Amino acid sequence: MAIRSNTFHTASSPLKPNSTKIAINTLKNTCGAAHNLGNTPPIPGTGTGTTLYLGNNMVTTEMDEQIAYAAHAPAQVKYLMDKYEWTDTQVSAINWTAIGLAKKRLTRKTSIHIAKIMYNWLNIGQQKKKISHHDNDAICPCCGTELEDQDHIYQCTHPNMRESIKKGLDAMMAKFHKHHIPSSVYISFVDTLRHVTHSKREWKT
User: What global pTM score does this model have?
Assistant: First the structure.
């Protein structure tokens, strides 16, 4: 991999590193490690036209994504495996590409909120107790009796919470119908959410 004038040069276009210093350091370390081990990167085949390597792997397409992955994925995977005691197989089984594509369609605020839900970072009672070390901070402010963890906020029995969840599920059903999602797909999906949230479908007569 050639590094000239603080620019990663490829056959197609240069990638300015100013926006991702972590990626630069990661790539330097990766290439340095390969060099120290005496590994020789493969020679590009006819028509390949690339000078960007990640370790011994040639990168010919989606270079921004490949560099971002090399910079951030190892630490992220380690964090998930340590936090949830997952195996390599469990991490690989998740469709991270689909999650990324879905989050790109969201506003920044919503995307951040979804990430907090995914990684159990919501500022709810369970999290507040970790900071304050006071048992009272862990109690749900709505029902006033249960530990407010991420499951409880969708299962709280307080009437206001039940009504809010019902409205959310009904709105979801209406949106799926509006966008012509097959009913056999979205009804099963929403029914699964109803089961998780301890909600019941109300049949219209």
Answer: 0.60
The CA-atom distances, in angstroms, between 24 and each of 7, 35, 42 are: 10, 16, 21
The secondary element (H helix, E strand) that includes residue 3 is: strand 3-4
**CA angle, 121 as apex, 103 and 70 as ends, to 5°?**
55
DSSP run (H or E) holding 128: helix 125-132
- The dihedral built from the CA positions of residue 15, 16, 20 and 22, taken in this order, carries a sign that is positive
Q: Which amino acid is residue 149, in one-letter code?
A: D
What does DSSP assign to residue 145? S
pLDDT tens across 92-116, in order? Answer: 899 988 988 999 899 999 999 998 9
* Distance in angstroms (rounded) separating the CA atoms of residues 112 and 174: 25
In three-state secondary structure terms, 116 is helix
